[in-house]
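P.,

For your records, the input lines for the assembly:
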Amino acid sequence: MQKKGRRSFLEIATAFIGGVLSLAAGIPLIGFAISPAFKKGESKWVDLGLADRLKNSRFKKVDYTFTAKDGWVKATKKRSVYVTDAGNGEWSVFSRVCSHLGCLVRWDESKESFLCPCHGAIFDKTGAVVAGPPPEPLQKLETKVEAGILYVKET
Amino acid sequence: MRQFLSERLPLEAFSAHLRKPLPKHINLLFSLGSLAMFLLLLQAATGAFLAFYYSPSPEHAHNAVTYISEEVPFGAFVRGLHHWGASAMVIIVVLHLLRVVLYSSYKAPRELTWIFGVLLLLIVLGFGFTGYLLPWDEKAYWATVVGVEIASTAPGLGDFVAKVMRGGTEIGAVTLSRFYALHTIWLPWLVFGLVGVHLFFVRYYGSSGTPKNTPEEMKTGKPFYPHQVFEDAVGMLILFVILAVVALFVPVPLEDVADPTNADYDPRPEWYFLFLFQLLKYFQGPFEVIGTFVIPTVGMLLLLFLPFLDRSERAVLWKRPIALTVTSVCVVGIVVLTILGGTSKKLETTDAAVQETSQPTEQIQGATTSDTETEEVEEGEAVFDFQLTEEEIEGARAVEESQ
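Structure tokens returned:
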């Protein structure tokens, strides 16, 4: 009886030590691996160029770059957007990232639509979904004009 | 030497175990598991050697792969073996799975062998997914963008999982090093662990043979060694020759370096993910999650627990009408979706123009340069880059303040 009690104690104590060791090593290791998921990205205003040069009732495909930290690298990030002032000075800047699975959409002038090359999504000129799988419209970026320069908010 | 070892190790018992007889009715399809094992070792060997030259960073990865392919002696061949070996692995593993379904080899007492086999299939697909980001070309980048976005649609933790996979909010240096670590350290550890367990069960329960075997015939066939091992070795030799010929004569594609702004690129995954790529087109709006999460997850769970769902007597597939129907529908469905995905038309848009890169510097104080370039664009869509330099922005502000 006494032996059995001692054996159970040893079993429980060994399992306890195993549990403590697993947690002591496991928590920091898991935290180490998943920490980037909790990092919040910084938002910043990025210039697209002189507003006068970008004025156009048609959509213009504009590429721009900015520097941001990518882990340990200070990287030059490239972005591509569609810009229009619709001829009335009200700026619309659409991200080209399809709201479905991240492919880049293309503006088709004859169809007056944004088309996605991956899964056939179609968005109208306001960014709303016309057809295909996306559950959300195209992302419209925040804009401002300062000193004649058009900026978009990069998040 | 033999005596030295046999005094210290149970060599006789091991030898007797290897010579245990197989079931009487067995055929060439029973070599598929060994072929998968051979391919796994080949992938491990070629991958380990490719790692001598590879560098997992966005700045160097593409150049490293180009260097391997174009300058390192036998580099194109080794990379070819690794690349085509990955495709061969998917084919062989799926055929192995179908052989098990054909002869209902997953039935008791071999349920655990099956479960670990399905887990190995998932890891093989994981190897494919993490591996094709590594060249850091257009295909690598965009297939990974789509793959990670698929994960992000999972209800609840999807977004979190996607961020963990990417190591942040977008694909970059952290993602590449993560995928490299997964591909070369985590998944190999996992795969060899699971293969060990899978093989233990295979040896412990013995080969299932075909359902034609009577209980008496289960141990009256040829010995595993050397008979079955010889047949497996011949299969491995043939497979290696095929792979070597393909690696020598079919160059492994390497597209342009990844460009996150290249919308002229039509992303397509590797052929073994094309069925999923095509499937996603059919679930729209709020039903998106059915294609991205529900069908793949439910499909995998059904596959994993198949031995507990199919309680019929052990028999060859065509004597099990329900299993035959389900298997046929799945196989035909995946093949049709793969063909549709592979032959889907690339997107053509109508907006012919020229690409322009210009700096309107003449209007701004502090401007240092004035460039205007015009360049033809293959796809014909105009691209504008009007971004200003720091000096030009300061100049514009100065102009505004002075007014």
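Two observations worth noting. The domain at 44-154 of chain A is CATH 2.102.10.10 (Rieske Iron-sulfur Protein). The helical segments of chain A are 2-34, 51-54.

Regards
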